[in-house]
């Protein structure tokens, strides 16, 4: 956009960052609506998604954020600099009540491999400024700083790890699930869920998402970099599988309707493209994002299509878990993943997914039925598939378990035959509260598992065409605000030479 165009915006009342809002701004009908911050996501070589929601009263029980039932025009700007002295793109979108006045803008036509800033305006109010980034063009790209996180139970701790992640100023952030938790408010915790009951309908999912997004540390992480998000179970209901709900304690009701409400609220509150918009209780969340010639992100959905957990879920010694018909991904996603791993647009194949990938046996031989250990034939087909395609720079990223782990992926876990990939498991942002040093998860039953730590935090990676530097970042407590972060473990992974190495 030209300077002339920017001038038109200014006459319309949009002040430059830092300048006082005087004169041209009309009287506001709405109270300040950008209470949930701003976000970007889904970077390509020429654009990204911009997100915000108008919600002057974000915790209103009807889930409508205190907005009237009228469409509101939301203007947006993408600047070449933080002061918006030159615009790269601008436009407007209409926020409507049927989507809780959320805004998803798919910006295109930008330059590859560069930083941008963005902001919104509605009813004379101006949002916070966010930083976004385009990916390099296919065939190029020399360095990427990527951080990933999961599991941010609001009640069990402050989001200091999100804040520290933002301060690292990564180019890209991956969130691997449990972005919200569906449970009722509990007593004696660091802070309290709203609504207070377990959420099961659209209004309540919207209020819960709003509560989480009111957190300023989470807002800082969204404003720092574009995100790629995938869900796990708690965005809907603990340990659900496809349309099979958790056994036992789940509230009564139609699970199909609950999943529809949860998926809809998730889409509304995330910086996703319209290609991901849900249709009733279905949502196409697995997708690929290319980071030039450097990396391909295969973002997986291990909830929506999975076979029900074997032997009643939990930790089991369960031969059924090895049945060839069982699948965590579903057949279509498995084939899509292997097709994508055969494309080799990027040096690194990075699987952004939820549950523990490597075999992990307890001392008594039991394994988690909710993780890949409960779907071993599916895991073996995928591992064999990437070996058959000659992929030697595969890194699996994992969340879910609220602990930091690192593992070598083996062609055969029983015989410990050759390393074929690497798994990095991030701990939680806050789930399970303050950590401890009381036990180690690294045991002789799993020789390929190299690292375990029970502190809250995230993982930071720095990726080049020849190596990936990995830092496990942790805070000592999440029951106290503003703790410093430290690196508790580092590894190097070499391109073409799978497995963890000392830095
Ligand atoms: Fe979790």
From TrEMBL:
Ranges where the Phospholipase D N-terminal domain occurs: 36-134
Entry annotated with the keyword Signal: yes
> Residue limits of the PhoD-like phosphatase metallophosphatase domain?
146-472
Q: Which UniProt keywords apply?
A: Signal
Q: Which InterPro entries match?
A: Metallo-depent_PP-like, PhoD-like_MPP, PhoD-like_sf, PhoD_N, Phospholipid_Metab_Enz, TAT_signal
The stretch of residues making up the signal peptide is 1-31
Residues forming coiled coils:
none
Q: Does the keyword Membrane apply?
A: no
Q: Which Gene3D superfamilies does this chain map to? A: PhoD-like phosphatase, Purple acid phosphatase-like, N-terminal
Q: What is this protein called?
A: Alkaline phosphatase D
What is the species listed in this Swiss-Prot or TrEMBL entry? Kibdelosporangium aridum
């Amino acid at each position: 956009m030209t300077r002339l165009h920017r001038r038109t915006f200014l006459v319309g009342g949009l002040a430059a960052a830092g300048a006082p809002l005087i004169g041209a701004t009309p009287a506001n009908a709405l109270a300040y609506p950008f209470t949930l911050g701003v976000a970007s996501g889904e970077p390509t070589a020429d654009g990204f998604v911009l997100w915000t929601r108008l919600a002057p009263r974000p915790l209103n029980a009807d889930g409508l954020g205190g907005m009237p039932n009228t469409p509101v025009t939301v203007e947006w700007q993408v600047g070449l600099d933080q002061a918006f002295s030159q615009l790269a793109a601008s436009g407007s979108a209409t926020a409507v009540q049927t989507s809780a006045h959320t805004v998803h803008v798919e910006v295109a036509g930008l330059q590859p491999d560069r930083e941008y800033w963005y902001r919104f305006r509605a009813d004379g109010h101006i949002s916070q400024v966010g930083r976004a980034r385009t990916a390099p063009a296919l065939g190029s790209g020399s360095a990427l700083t990527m951080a990933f996180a999961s599991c941010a139970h609001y009640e069990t701790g402050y989001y200091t790890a999100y804040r520290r992640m933002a301060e690292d100023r990564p180019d890209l952030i991956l969130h691997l699930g449990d972005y919200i938790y569906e449970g009722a408010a509990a007593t004696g915790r660091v802070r309290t869920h709203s609504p207070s009951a377990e959420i099961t309908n659209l209004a309540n999912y919207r209020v819960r998402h709003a509560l989480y997004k009111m957190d300023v540390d989470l807002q800082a992480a969204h404003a720092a970099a574009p995100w790629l998000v995938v869900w796990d179970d708690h965005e809907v209901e603990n340990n659900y599988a496809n349309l099979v709900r958790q056994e036992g304690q789940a509230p009564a009701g139609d699970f199909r309707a609950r999943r529809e409400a949860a998926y809809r609220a998730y889409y509304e509150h995330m910086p996703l493209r319209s290609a991901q918009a849900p249709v009733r209780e279905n949502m196409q969340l697995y997708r690929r994002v290319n980071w030039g010639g450097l990396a391909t992100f295969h973002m997986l959905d291990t909830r929506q299509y999975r076979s029900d957990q074997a032997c009643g879920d939990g930790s089991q010694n369960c031969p059924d878990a090895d049945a060839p018909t069982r699948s965590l991904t579903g057949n279509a996603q498995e084939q899509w993943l292997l097709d994508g791993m055969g494309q080799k647009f990027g040096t690194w194949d990075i699987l952004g997914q939820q549950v523990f990938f490597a075999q992990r046996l307890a001392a008594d031989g039991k394994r988690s039925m909710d993780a890949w250990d409960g779907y071993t034939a599916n895991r073996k087909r995928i591992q064999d598939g990437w070996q058959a395609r000659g992929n030697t720079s595969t890194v699996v990223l994992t969340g879910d378990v609220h602990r930091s782990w690192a593992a070598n992926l083996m062609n055969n876990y029983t015989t410990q035959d050759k390393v074929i990939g690497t798994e990095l498991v991030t701990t939680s942002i806050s789930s399970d509260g303050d950590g401890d040093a009381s036990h180690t998860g690294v045991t002789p039953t799993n020789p390929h598992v190299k690292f375990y730590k029970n502190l809250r935090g995230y993982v930071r990676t720095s990726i080049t065409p020849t190596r990936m530097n990995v830092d496990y970042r942790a805070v000592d407590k999440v029951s106290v605000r503003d703790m410093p972060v430290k690196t508790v473990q580092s590894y190097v992974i070499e391109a073409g030479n799978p497995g963890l190495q000392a830095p």
